[in-house]
Amino acid sequence: MISIGLKIRLAAATVAAITLLGAAAPALAQSEAVKEAVKDLEQSEILSPKETLLGVVSVLRLQIGELDKGLSDLRGLNNDQLEERADFYAFLEEAEEFLLAVELGAETGDVKLLAEELQNWRDEILDPRSEQIINFILVFQTKAILRTADIRYLKIRSDIARLEDLEILTGPKAQNLLKEALL
Does this model's pTM top 0.70? Predict the structure, then answer.
């Protein structure tokens, strides 16, 4: 039987992992399913050890799904980056297999031992690898954001140049506002 302390540690660790995903990657916003699963797990006071363990596995599965989606949304990768993404996909498949084994073990095995193994696996393997995946995704999202900002800046500069050519922005007030905007 899982002690109350271990239940709390598992739930807290899961919430911490979700918080890490949310804070580290706003663009990998938590899906409503993950938020709802965590909320349900946190509010469940009378769960059996097996139910608690399966709830944690369910939340971890949702997180893995979001990492997978984040990777699949990436475009314009070169061969090295495609290879690295393939390695990440392979890891996520292994993680799914591990979680399936935990689920199957929860049906017949020592739930306390499985919970401890899951906690160790999450701390030592899943969390560090998830952080690598998030960083990989964020690099490309940042590049896309910078490209968008550059395009918008060029359009604004072009519009301002046209307005200056038409002598619409010739007044001192307009010139001061442009200087303030560092254009």
Answer: no
